[in-house]
Amino acid sequence: MVNEATNERDDELPIEKLSTYDAVDRVVHHPPRADGRLPGIPTPLIGRDDDIVAIGKLFAMPTTRLVSLVGTGGIGKTRLALAVTEMLRGDCRDGVRWVGLDGVPDSERALAALLGVLGIPEAADDESLAQVCAVLATMELLLVLDNCEQVSGLAATLAELLVRCPGVRIVAGIDPLQRLSRIFDA
After folding, report:
1. Please, what's the largest Cα pairwise distance for the chain?
2. Which of 57, 107, 140, 163 could serve as 167's disulfide partner, Cβ 3.0–4.6 Å?
3. Helix 77-88 crosses helix 49-60 at what angle (to 10 degrees)?
4. Which range marks the domain in which residue 17 is found?
């Protein structure tokens, strides 16, 4: 739809210029296109309008590089992350990449998964971070990391990635109860 006052298309406006209703409408009524990179959306997102807008406003600030979606399993972190990616997809020159980390035990394997998503052959384990950073250093990209809580050493790796890759932003889904159970089971 074209805004007659500004002659801009609503679907091309950055999220901070949209009203809450319009931002939510963009996400709910325009699901992600089938580009092979994001999981499909099985159901409409209901009752998370304020969360979607709040996350959009966080990422509208240039200083926001990492947003963690924290909650217990089944609460809808993954579904919320999908809605956020749809909303922000046009704001990232190099798009969005989804990295599912279910079953990934450590940061080296997480980096290998990221290399796979980027379509890059895996390097030796001790060179994975350097290889990922070399690729991402000039990109403007939103990385969505799902199931981060089980990946040992991931926080330090993400911190290094954010320092070395200024155009990368991250949405991370974390289940604190799963993380606690890993600590106490060890």
Report:
1. 61
2. 140
3. 50
4. 2-185
Q: List pLDDT tens digits, range 11-64.
A: 454 545 545 445 444 444 333 332 336 777 667 788 898 999 999 899 989 999
* Beta strands, E only, 107-167: 141-146
| Global pTM value | 0.74
Look at the block and give the residue holding tokens 């739809």.
Answer: 1
Per-residue pLDDT, 183: 46
Residue 29, CA distances (Å) to 41, 42, 107, 128 in order: 12, 13, 36, 39
Task: Give SS3 for 86.
Answer: helix
**Closest alpha carbon to 23 in 8, 13, 34:** 13
Task: Give the number of other CB atoms < 10 A from CB of residue 1.
Answer: 8
| Amino acid at position 159, single letter | A
Number of domains making up the chain: 1
**Tokens encoding 64:** 């926001």
